[in-house]
Amino acid sequence: MNTTKHNWTKEEILALYNKPLMDLLFESASIHRTHHDPNVVQVSTLISIKTGGCSEDCGYCPQAARYDTKVEGNDLMSVPHVKAQALRAKASGSSRVCMGAAWRNVKDGSEFDQVLEMVRTINKLDMEVCCTLGMLTENQAHRLAEAGLYAYNHNLDTSEEFYKEVISTRGFEDRLQTINNVRKTNITVCSGGIIGMGESIEDRAEMLVTLSNLNPQPESVPINALVAVEGTPMENQKPIEIWEMIRMVATTRIVMPETQVRLSAGRTEINREGQAMCFFAGANSIFAGDKLLTTPNPDVNEDMKMFELLGLKPQKPFEKGLQPKTVEAEDSQLHALGEKPKWSRPGHTIERNVEVSLKGK
Ligand code: SF4
């Protein structure tokens, strides 16, 4: 029987989040065991295929060109380079490769064609392929699906209300539109957020309302803890307490029982005991590799030691869904439409972003 509910309210989610911790953990761990093997964790490797120089003003992001951070940008990686990294990831136990490009949105043309070739190449290695490339049209989503893309990541980041305090160069509704475009294909949706940006618990609950009330719910929900990077508007933000992470993971697990809940950025700040609590609370996916796009991540060997200690096993590829078929470029029925969608540019002022970008000049 499918017990997934799609009409969660903020009040219901807050009541879960604020439960006595032992009650919250008991409930989330019980739900986790009903829907997943509690000793299996999916391992993904993130490859930054195009780093830095981004036109957006996401207040947490060291890749935004307007902030003076130590990120060194690069052009789009070559297909053989990406393939070599994917093979390394596979050898070290990853079942999924997630390719991230610091773009506002996907543009039809040679660079997108190159990304499609990367998708084909990695799918043929029998690994799940995910991309995070910014906003996407429906036609672009279909082209990615045809190449063999398994998942598309597009985070909501936070609540609609607090979103206006984080980003001014695009709107919350654009995020939803991209998710909607991905949903018109067989690609699975990966969408989550970041905690510790100065948002309230209500904002966290609101974000979970939006995600859990999507029908179907995202197959994957990353929960990131802000990594406050020097030079970004959020550089002085205090790190969150581990208890907030555990509560967020547990609440996410309860409201999205089938979803893979992913421990993402900020994991270096969590010791093994804390991570074990997160797995118990319902997290069943991590990113491996020493870097998450541009911020630090635990060493792969450290992760494998932790898996051994906790008796965890990495999930095999395509255990939760079928491997997509790859259509070669020359056999493709789809082509670039050269659309120029009107993604919004709200342009409201976010003081802390303005101050930091002026300092960076
Ligand atoms: S989060 Fe993505 S869109 Fe925002 S500034 Fe960073 S790279 Fe650009």
In short:
This protein has 361 residues and is of the alpha/beta class. It has helices spanning 10-17, 21-35, 79-91, 110-123, 138-147, 160-163, 172-183, 201-212, 242-255, 272-281, 300-310, 351-360, and strands at 40-50, 96-101, 128-132, 151-153, 188-190, 193-195, 220-225, 260-263, 283-288, 291-292, 295-296, 313-314. The chain has 12 helices and 12 strands.
Describe the structure.
- This protein is α/β, with parallel strands linked by helices.
- The protein has a domain at 41-210 and 220-240 and 287-317 and 346-360: Aldolase class I (TIM Barrel).
- The protein is built from twelve helices and twelve strands.
- The strands form two sheets. Strands 1, 2, 3, 4, 5, 6, 7, 8, 9 and 12 form a ten-stranded parallel beta sheet that branches.
- Helix 2 (21-35) crosses helix 9, helix 3 (79-91) runs parallel beside helix 4 and helix 5 (138-147) crosses helix 7 (172-183).
- The longest helix has 15 residues, at 21-35.
- The chain is globular, with a radius of gyration of 19 Å.
